[in-house]
Amino acid sequence: MSDSCAGGCPYGLVNDPFPGQCGRYIDFNGNGVCDLSQVGAATNTPSSSSDQTSSPDTSSDSLNENVVDHGNSNGSDNITGVPDSGSGGSDGVSVGMDGPNYHVLPISILLLAAYLGTYFLFKKGILNPKTHKRVWNLLVTVGYVGVGITGVLLTTMVNLGIKAYSQGITFWHTEMAILMVIGTLIHLHIYRKPFKRMFKVLFKWKSAPANK
Amino acid sequence: MVYAFLLPSLPVLGGYLYTYTLYKRGLIRKTLHVNFWNFLIGVSFLISGGGGFLLLIAMELGIVLPLSPEMFYWHVELGISMILITLFHFHCYWKSALEMVFLKSRRDRT
Question: How do residues A140-158 score in pLDDT, each as one tens digit?
Answer without folding.
Answer: 999 999 999 999 999 999 8
